[in-house]
Design goal:
This protein is mainly alpha-helical. The protein is built from 9 helices and no strands. The protein starts with 11 loop residues before the first helix and ends in a 7-residue tail after the last helix.
Length: about 190
């Protein structure tokens, strides 16, 4: 008779999150199953539910992690950087391309526990630098509406990243992040330097 297998998992929560991110990256969010993730982590099928409650709880944790990663990426743009808002957009695109599974989940509120306080706090941390960058733009003769400017900048970066990830854009001749920077620089709304 074989000895019973003992298994101690140092950080089950992290292992399940990592496995879920891999499943989303390879097969999409619809392929997520707590039972399958438990099998991958070699733990009981109830273990992931203990940490996350349900599939929405797991996806909420991934989205929260994603917003925190995005906040960290946006925080690397110096406050005095020329073209600060463009650089935040470039970091946003870079984040999306580097973390496609997180990006896929973050903006799908129907999959998440939208009232989760950790998720709300992470969203706030990620949006704060973008709003600050929009407020810091030169007025160019009129008072800018920082909320509308931030929404426009976010829409441009998010749309570009989404189109790039879906394969809807022609293959860029350069790095997609550089393509994004050039797109912003060539935009008729881009500020003159």
């Amino acid at each position: 008779m074989a000895a019973p297998r003992t298994y101690h998992h140092g950080d089950l929560r992290r292992a399940v999150l990592a496995a879920a991110v891999e499943v989303i990256r390879s097969d999409g969010v619809a392929a997520i199953s707590l039972r399958d993730l438990a099998r991958r982590a070699e733990v009981s099928h109830a273990a992931p539910a203990h940490h996350f409650g349900d599939k929405a709880g797991l996806l909420t944790a991934i989205a929260t992690e994603g917003f925190d990663l995005l906040a960290a990426a946006l925080a690397t743009v110096p406050a005095d950087a020329a073209h600060r808002l463009r650089e935040m957009g470039a970091r946003y695109v870079e984040f999306a391309l580097g973390h496609p599974a997180h990006f896929e989940v973050m903006f799908r509120p129907g999959l998440l526990h939208h009232d989760d306080p950790e998720l709300a706090a992470a969203k706030e941390r990620a949006s704060r630098p973008l709003h600050a960058g929009a407020r810091d733009l030169p007025a160019n003769g009129r008072a800018p509406d920082a909320r509308r400017t931030a929404l426009a900048a976010w829409s441009l970066a998010h749309g570009f990243a989404t189109l790039q990830l879906s394969g809807s854009l022609p293959a860029p001749e350069t790095d997609p992040v550089e393509t994004f920077r050039a797109l912003v620089d060539d935009s008729p709304a881009a500020p003159a330097t």
